[in-house]
Design brief:
This protein is an all-alpha fold. Helix content is about 70%, strand content about 0%. The protein starts with a helix and ends in a 26-residue tail after the last helix.
Length: about 170
């Protein structure tokens, strides 16, 4: 007996021994697939729905590539400008030295206010101006008008009247 005969005989015997197991396995698998068919159908649609946004993002692939390349170009350009400017500044020796700054805006304003006050104090005695006093004549003239109630309430825009001054020019306006 040769090895080829032994192998072919062994294969035939194993086939007929395993044949019933294979048939039973196929029947069980067919029954399982028949019972699970609705579940597989629902699972197919669920997976389809879950993956829908990813498929939609695939349509924007061109924009992803465009913005990605634009970002890389921007980063590269910025880096080149940064390092070239630093090289130029160092080679010319114009590094930013902490320069002693002059006045700040607030100190300038304080000095200006102080100068104006000093100037006012110097000019006031020369002209001979007296400090302003409240005009008591006008207060007495309109005191009764200010006290009366117009019926609209004591506060607010409707309770007051804007008095007009008389025109002193002959032509009038």
């Amino acid at each position: 007996m040769s090895i080829a005969t032994v192998l072919s005989t062994t294969a035939v015997v194993l086939y007929y021994v395993c044949f019933p197991v294979i048939i039973i396995w196929k029947l069980l698998l067919a029954a399982l697939l028949f019972v699970a068919a609705p579940l597989l159908h629902v699972a197919h649609y669920l997976i389809h729905g879950v993956l829908w946004p990813i498929r939609q993002l695939g349509k924007l692939e061109t924009l992803y590539i465009y913005f990605g390349v634009a970002a890389l170009v921007g980063i590269l350009t910025g880096a080149i400008l940064h390092y070239s400017i630093n090289f130029i500044v160092r080679s010319l020796g114009i590094d930013r030295v902490a320069q002693e700054r002059g006045r700040t805006l607030s100190s300038y304003r304080a000095e200006k206010t102080e100068r104006q006050a000093k100037k006012m104090r110097q000019t006031l005695p020369k002209v001979g101006l007296k400090p302003l006093r409240p005009d008591t004549v006008l207060k007495e003239e309109y005191s009764d008008w200010l006290k009366q109630d117009k019926g609209f309430g004591t506060k607010g825009l409707l309770s007051t009247t804007i008095l007009e001054e008389e025109d002193s020019s002959e032509a009038g306006f």
